[in-house]
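Can anyone check this?
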Amino acid sequence: MKLLRNLLLTLLVAVFLTTSALAAVPYSTYTYDIDGNMALSPDAYVPDRVINSEDLALEIGLYGVKSIFVDSHEMVYLADTKNNRIVVIDENWNTQYGISTFYNDNGVYDSLDAPEGVFVNEIEIYVADSQNHRIVVFDRKDGSFKRIIAEPESDVFPEGHIYTPIALSVDTAGRIYVVSSTTTYGVISMNADGTFLGFLGAQKSSPSAFDIFWRNFQTKAQRAQSTQYVPTEYNNIAIDETGFIYVTTSTIDAASQQSAIESKSTSADYAPVKKLNPKGEDIMNRNGFYPPSGEVDVVTEATVGVSSSISGPSKIIDVALGPAGMWSIIDEKRSKVFTYDQNGNLLYVFGDQGSQIGNIVNVQGIEYKGDELILLDKSNDTLTIYKRTDYGDLLVEALQNTQDRQYDKAAEYWEKILQRNSNFDMAYIGIGDSLYRQGKFKESMEYYQYAYAIEEYSESFKQIRKAWMQDWILVVPLVIVIFFVLFGKFLGYANKVNVAGQKMKQKRTLKETFLYAFHIIFHPFDGFWDMKHEKRGDMRAAIVIVAFTILGFIYKSAGTAYIHNPYSTGISYVNEILGVLTPYFLWCISNWCFTTLFEGEGSMKDIFMATGYAILPIPLFMIPSTAISNVLLLDEASIISLLNSIGLIWAGFLIFFAMSVIHDYALGKNVIICIATIVGMAIIIFLAVLFSGLVTKIVSFVYNIYIELSYRI
């Protein structure tokens, strides 16, 4: 009996483990944080089943399917390209009929030839009959022929142009938008009868600087022959219920696309997916941490799964529009799905290459079908069906309620999402939005800060500042007036001390030499002259000013408001100190080297001292700008930049004038020496790096010899 019980327990455990193994998802779902690090996420979709030709009961199996489309009734349409047909499947995956041959407008027997695209509305089926260079329209109910839309005619098409439609969409007004594989001027727009209307979304051409220069020396005929700077062609298209068009392209220069990702560009330039309005203008929101271009970590190959060995930017070949403003693109390189919201925030990434159920060998198309997602695998002409999970349902509900401005209800779903995925930044933003609309601005700022939602954080702070200003409306102007009065009195006192210091003294106090800097910054020529010849400055004051500048940079690092420094990783005192002392000493040493060779009258001490005095405007403007950053909004950041720029430019002019005075250089010569000094700084840095690398290699060599000898002895 005991033996039987043990056998039963063993059998149950084996069954449980087998079931778990079968239920395991063969890929990881993840997102990216603001630093480009992968953050694992619960699965939004899991594989349900794979459908092939046998499941569809097709007498002739699918062969070379190029695209898939799902209509509003969840009917599925396949462009079975190499079989020259369109396969129509109902919502329960039963094949209804195929479209291959028909009698055309002239009553002549006709057929499709390698159709690559299909679009269906409530009435008609539009087929991109690619190799016949036309669009053929059929009735949605029974697939009967209705009409042919021939190649559009216009003078804008170059001579010899071949029209090859591969994808298309139709808006509610009957306008047809066609992607032609041989047309590089954008999406072709036509009326319902095929009348050409124009191009939409023409991509920018980008010849190199050398190409542009070389064309100046070419004849007119040569320029015409070499004019190959045509825009990149699109490869797929989708249209939403409001008439906005989504288009994808996979022929963007890889380096340019990668650069746009790394720089977190919000521009449409080098974007593999665009959202076009009826005028052809890109209106896509790219408000996420990274632009919606597919894979983010394209260099270090840190992604998970089989495709982790693939580097370089994604090759986007299709786009599908989902519920609640969601949309997905597929990466042909990695067979992955990237899903975004209507603001361009990455919701999740899933999928991988492989033959296991859920993975795709070579992805070709993507479509939504209710709560299912369909991926087309062109390697074996199969359809993998993914079911949306509970986590995916929560995302849809949260986004839909946000889209409907039901923020309180959306917050409930965002809270549930956070319980499952604490790394999901959009959930923090959603809760912050709800708190904002409840008037809980301080609490909303905390959630916005978690998600680095700087614009939303600034809006909440704006409301807090507004209430604070109303309470202190009389005090704030008074404080500002008092500050300027006190600062004016300080300058008056400094001037009084400086006037008194014009009389020669054997030894000046630190207070006198320090306050003399406030004379120099307003009167640099006679100030630096007196500093050198009448000894009105000294090294003690210069060191104090340099230390004051270091403190200014430390305060800037620590005291700048979150709105204006959201990505701060904390204070590094060493970095702040070296950030001031390194350029300071490099300038002084380099300038001394050149002025010694070119008859400069200033000594090393004069250079150190004059440079120290000259940088005083930097902390004088940096400290106040840092202080006021705590009351300024995001769109007022230019005030901070202006103040800091004034300080830097002022200090730069003072350094220039100081070198002219202490070395007794004319204007032209001083300009040359200052430029040479900057070049010298670069040379010193290069030599220092070279020397440090050499020393490192020598130390490593000696250490390796020591280790080798220690083993032998």
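Reply from J.R.: I decoded it. Residues 1-22, 224-230 have pLDDT under 50 and may be disordered.
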